[in-house]
Amino acid sequence: MIRKRAVQRDMERIGSEGCYFLSLIVAVERELDSELDIYAVYLASLEAGAIGEDCYVYEPQNILDTYLGGKWNVSKMPAAYFASEGDIVIMRYERKDGMKTWAHFVLADRSGAKVEYDPYGTSKTVSDGQLVSKRVLRRI
Description:
Blueprint: H1 7-17, H2 19-32, H3 38-48, H4 60-68, E1 72-78, E2 88-97, E3 100-108, E4 115-117, H5 124-128, E5 130-139
Antiparallel strand pairs: 1-5, 2-3, 2-5, 3-4
Helix pairs in contact: 1-2, 2-4
């Protein structure tokens, strides 16, 4: 069988543009206490319309619905938001570099206040930028 997708290009997109997507996957893994196959989740999420080919996340709740069960809701909250019990918090940082603004998503710890997982490892956008908002996912 010959693969029909350009796997290398998909992996490049996940690595370069998938910080929100990868943060969601790690949040699911944290809840399940087991690892997922990132590429399989990418393909399933793409097929479900939860993400675009470029890893833009259209329906983050769909990923949690699929892998954690139940129904989930996502809200965009200010940077000062304090997490409630059961919240999954993804933090959005921005860093300005001349005329360019860099944005990066990371998974917060269970308190919603500290970075638990940075898909880039140690992102300059997190270390030199500022927290601008939070995406809060909550089971409904």
